[in-house]
Amino acid sequence: FLFFTSDEFDKQTAVYVNAVYLTDNKLVPQNEGKIIIIAGTPLVKKGVVDPLYNIKFDAPFVFRIAQEYRKVPLTAQEEKNLPKGSKNTMKMKWARLPFADKGDSKSFLCAYLPGDLQLGDFSIKGMFLRQLPRKPYQGFTDAFAWQRNMKLQTDDDKLYVTQAQVTNNSNSYRRSGALRFTYEVADMKEAKDITVIGRQKGKDLIYESDEFYGQLYVGKLTKEQVKGKLKSEQNIGTITAVVCCGLMAVGGAYLAFKKTA
Predict the structure, then answer these.
(1) Where are the beta strands (DSSP E) in 86-157?
(2) Which of 174, 176, 148, 175 is nearest to 161 (CA)?
(3) What is the spatial distance between Cα 86 and Cα 93, in angstroms, rounded to a whole number?
(4) pLDDT per residue over 199-232, tens digit each?
């Protein structure tokens, strides 16, 4: 919600105010098509299986991160720090690969891999699951990597399976064009209790409908706490917008000054 306009926030707030808060998370046919709020302890109804290597997760959502070691342009700050006269504008770096096309989860690319959560009578799927907190996956073994002619690589506190020639945890030698992957997995210990706002459609909750966008919060919240969260996010969004506008104005003034200098 951070980049909603004030009108969009007002519409969302109005929807939340009129939402039906279910205390028992039971399906009520009269609520069909209405925005409802449910809260409690979810169950993993369907875990994730990544078809790339047939890895099974007891989690409702997994983010596969695939990377390639290749040349990428320097950032503006890195170029600024170059020695005087240097013409080097590229560096070697692990760069994230694009996302796989919808329905193509077998390619060595990034992918969102959804399962299914159950909360009361309702199934929580799709975009809601992306809002769950995530943690790095640490379940790879040497045997798993060896069977796939790869190795384990620790980088930035994350464990990767990689094609690179790794000699130690400092990753001292890495081959250009090598691929590696890891996962971020939904942390259901942190999300022991959740609150979900969505439009009821049978036993499913719809994330996006008309001008409404659903939301998943960690913790079991009351209706008043949900409204408070939305208000807090509106305030943060306003501050962010003001700061961005300020930075743009300063940047514009600096460029104008340089042009005339």
Answers:
(1) 90-96, 111-114, 116-119, 122-124, 134-136, 151-155
(2) 148
(3) 19
(4) 999 999 999 866 778 999 999 999 889 888 877 7
Least confident of 46-60, 139-153, 210-224: 210-224
Q: Which two tokens stand for residue 243?
A: 């700061």
Give per-residue burial for 238-260: e unless 16+ CB within 10 Å, then b. eeeeeeeeeeeeeeeeeeeeeee
Phi/psi for 73 (5° steps) reads -65, 150
Pairing of strands 43-46, 48-50: unpaired
Can you tell me whether residue 178 is helix, strand or coil?
coil
Tokens standing for residue 12: 């969302």
Name which of 82, 66, 98 is nearest 162 in CA terms.
66
- In order of 16, 125, 158, 234, the CA distances from 230 in angstroms are 9, 22, 33, 6
Are the C-beta atoms of 45 and 118 separated by less than 8 Å? yes
What are 85-108's pLDDT values in tens digits? 887 888 888 999 999 887 787 889
Contact by Cβ (8 Å): 197, 36: yes
Tens-place pLDDT, residues 171-187: 545 677 889 999 999 99
pTM over 0.85: no
Instruction: Give the Å distances, CA to CA, from 238 to 106, 111, 214.
Output: 41, 32, 20
Give the C-alpha separation, 110 to 99, whole Å.
4
Radius of gyration of the CA atoms of the chain, in A? 23
Q: Is the pLDDT score of 258 beyond 50?
A: no
